[in-house]
UniProtKB/TrEMBL annotation, chains A, B:
Superkingdom as given in the UniProt entry: Bacteria
Keyword line: DNA-binding, Transcription, Transcription regulation
Keyword Transcription appears in the UniProt entry: yes
A matching Pfam family: HTH_20
Protein's UniProt name: Metalloregulator ArsR/SmtB family transcription factor
Amino acid sequence: MGVTKTQNFTEEQNTLALYAKALGHPARVAILQHLLQRTTCVCGDLVEVLPLAQATVSQHLKELKAIGLINGTVEGTSVCYCINKHKWEEVRDMLMTMFAAPVSCDQKCC
Amino acid sequence: MGVTKTQNFTEEQNTLALYAKALGHPARVAILQHLLQRTTCVCGDLVEVLPLAQATVSQHLKELKAIGLINGTVEGTSVCYCINKHKWEEVRDMLMTMFAAPVSCDQKCC
DNA sequence: AACTTTAATCGTATTATTGCGATATAGTAA
DNA sequence: TTACTATATCGCAATAATACGATTAAAGTT
């Protein structure tokens, strides 16, 4: 009834789905792309970059923080965000593993 | 107002988010994993594999079909599903591109 | 202390997603 | 035709996600 039956899937399936869901919104993709472009941490200019209200951006940042994909460090009155390298590579590895498998089925072969 | 502001993001951001969202549910991850394991197309045993009702599985398959990630071919009374190789590689390439970028920021560096 | 700045949180409205029983549809078999 | 099988779709209920104005919280500035 609207609740994902998490307990009936493997841990790998749930984890991968969780990470994918985090990437499943253009605002969060944009945030991550912006953080990747920078060599230094981003301190507060994310709201200006995104076409969303401050409250909404903060909410998306919270979600990315919740799964550990980004870090937020208070720096005076603002907050500096950066990609969590360790988690980023973990997500990359999981995706790589899934997509590394060869697709045996080409076109309509059934 | 609950509607994703698609028009304000780049096409790349929207496309990537769309693909990621498709992977953002354990049932759909499980479906794709199952299809990847097989060297031949899967004809109808997906409902038995997943811990979900037939209607729900059909719905998840519909979503994967909608974005072109899988193909469904009618084979008698059943339907054969397989990964769409072309789309699969497109998704892989988009993810690779995003995750190929080096993460300059390590731990708490702000 | 009073004010400013920046970000998080609250409250709420709206839309999307998930799940499934029931039903419809399409093909096969008798 | 009738019955059976497999899948899709409908209709509904419940939960999740998205968005933003308003408010709060924390730190810096005057």
